[in-house]
Amino acid sequence: MEELRKGLARIVSLIKREPIIDRVAVKKTLRELERELLKADVSPDLVLELTRKVEERVFKEDVPPGFSRRELLLRALYEELVNVLGGENKHELKVRKGGVLLLVGLQGSGKTTTAAKLALYYKKRGFKVGLICADNYRPGAYEQLSQLANSIGVEFYGLKGAPSVEVALNGVEALRAKGVELIIVDTAGRHKEEKDLLNEMKELVNSLKPDEVVLVLDATIGKRAGAQAEAFHKVAPLGSIILTKMDGSARGGGALAAVAKTGAKVIFIGVGEKLEELDPFDPPSFVSRLLGMGDLKSLVDRMRKAQLVAQPDALIRGRFTLLEFKQQLEGLSKMGPLRKILELLPGSYEITPELEKAGSENVKKWIAIMNSMTREELANPDTITRSRIIRIAKGSGTSTKDVKNLLTTYKRTQKLLRQLSRSRGGRLIPGI
Amino acid sequence: MAKKLVLWPVYFDASRSREQGRRVPARLAVTPVSAEDLLKAARAAGYEAELDSEAKHPATWFESSGRVFVTADEPKTVVIRRVAEQLKKMKLAPSKASRILP
User: Fold this and answer.
1) Which residues in chain A touch residue B61, judged by CB atoms under 8 angstroms apart?
2) Which single residue of A98, A165, A368, B57 could bond A396 by disulfide (Cβ 3.0 to 4.6 Å)?
3) A-B interface: how many C-beta pairs under 8 angstroms?
4) Collapsing DSSP states into helix, strand and coil, what is residue A218?
5) Does the domain made of A2-88+292-298 have the CATH classification 1.10.10.10?
6) Which residues in chain B touch residue A393, judged by CB atoms under 8 angstroms apart?
């Protein structure tokens, strides 16, 4: 992954140094990007899709006020990369006291080491962890896991010579009796092909009924990881994936992209041989690190804020219905305190106590209320009668008082905006 | 033994169905009924009464109509009757405004 990181950082600095960001410059940059991604074994169609999207965004989207096309390019790059690698969401394992995690994977994928890594990770988070070696096929598997368990200080169970299902079931009982809260089961990676692995996995899952099934996948195979992830995802749609050996090869990027494309959830990546080297996978922060930008993340945040403010096209023209109010609020709950947004609006924008009450708790409620309104009601709030209020309250699980509050706040905001717009001669934000 | 009873405005509201909480036959019921009206009526009927203005009745969980606590010896049904009759009297009486205009 180091190669890819260096390459991407180079591209970012290229973008920053380029005198003008015109079609030619963008194309040049994107060619470089394509080259780097292909080197990382990202599948060509994904690469093409990515660069196409970025190019489109840079020239079609409106640049938020105060920002340059260059910054838009950087933002598009960041966001599209995040998309390719799985989106904004971070997935986590459902771990609870008394839970069982089952690890599966082809031979050589790094299951045993990863089992120990996971054990250490959760031990650090306060769980009493136990490891079970259900691998009676590979020579030394028992000893290896037992030693690892010892070195990190977690309980261990194994039974040589018995079939893996039996070992697993006995192990769970034995460990629970010792007070273990989280059990991680390492299985045998004795298959060369997914098909056989998945069949055995089904057996194990049926008898063991684990809380989570985790596929341990070797990132060095590059984009071929996609096929494995796909097969796994079909059989176990709720399963998760850990990509190992991301540090070792240049192909980690491709593996990640291919896996993310299947829709499977990547929860951790292995970045080294040491037991601490297991990172929870979170696409936005991963991409941030890849592109070498602490500063890019804050840039993206500022741009999003500015976009929110720039949204008031309707506001400016004097149209402010519940619909626009709702859009503002929806943008808000992703964004944070109303005050910060208002700060950005040029001119003296008084923060009325009502608007301030539109702080976090109410926003969610109000969005729920507006979700129970019809399009008509949102566009013409004056048509809302008492009986409609009752329907809206019922639909959103709120009280009629709440609905009425929302309506009065909306009306006040509307009046405020109208006054502002009038005092500025019909324009809310100068220069637009 | 005086007991504390709860009276909800819904009990007396003519515009509501029994399913929505009305307890009183339609001809004895009134509309609209507020918790404050109830309070006055209960007191006028001779009971000690207190108001709880933010309570919601389960059948109308989306509206906080409020309720009235009444202390009485009699069975609740009797109390409801008495208060209903009082309410009816109050609501049908000419309001203050009508004294100004003939």
Assistant:
1) 399
2) A368
3) 15
4) strand
5) no
6) 62-63
Nearest residue in A to B55, CA atom:
A399
Residues of chain A neighbouring B64 (CB-CB closer than 8 A): 399, 401
| Chain B neighbors of A399, CB-CB under 8 A | 56, 61-64
Mean pLDDT of chain A: 78
pLDDT at position B98 is 55
User: In whole angstroms, what is the distance from residue A167 CA to residue A279 CA?
Assistant: 29
CATH 3.30.450.20 fits B3-100, yes or no: no
Beta-strand relationship, B67-72 and B3-7 = antiparallel
A99-104, strands of its sheet edge to edge: A155-158, A129-134, A182-187, A99-104, A212-218, A240-244, A265-270, A278-280
* CATH H superfamily, domain A99-281: P-loop containing nucleotide triphosphate hydrolases (3.40.50.300)
Q: Please state, in angstroms and rounded to a whole number, the distance separating the CA atoms of residues B36 and B42.
A: 10
Residue A321: partners with Cβ closer than 8 Å, 6 or more residues away: A378, A379, A380, A381
| Ordered mean pLDDT values, 10 residues apiece, chain A (432 residues) | 80 81 84 88 87 85 73 84 82 81 85 90 88 85 89 88 84 88 83 68 82 88 84 81 84 86 86 85 82 66 63 52 70 46 44 50 80 88 90 91 87 72 51 34
B63 inside 8 A of chain A by CB: yes
Q: Is the Cβ of A389 closer than 8 Å to some Cβ of chain B?
A: no
Give ipTM to 2 decimals.
0.76
A393 at interface of B, judged by CB pairs closer than 8 A: yes
User: With contacts defined as CB-CB under 8 Å, which chain B residues touch A401?
Assistant: 63-64
pLDDT of residue B6: 93
Q: Which amino acid is at A161?
A: G
Q: How far is B98 from chain A, CA to nearest CA, in Å? A: 28
CATH homologous superfamily of A311-423 = Signal recognition particle, SRP54 subunit, M-domain (1.10.260.30)
Task: Give the helix/strand (H/E) hosting A212.
Answer: strand A212-218
pLDDT < 70 stretches in chain B: 1, 94-102
The domain locations on chain A are 2-88+292-298, 99-281, 311-423
* Per-domain residue ranges of chain B: 3-100
Which residues from A are below 8 Å from B56, CB to CB? 399
Task: Check A394 against B62: CB less than 8 A apart.
Answer: yes
- Which residue from B minimizes the CA distance to A399? B62
Name beta bridge partners: A280. A268
B56:A393 CB<8 A = no
Q: Which of B10, B62, B63, B64 is best to mutate for the A interface (most A CBs within 10 A)?
A: B62
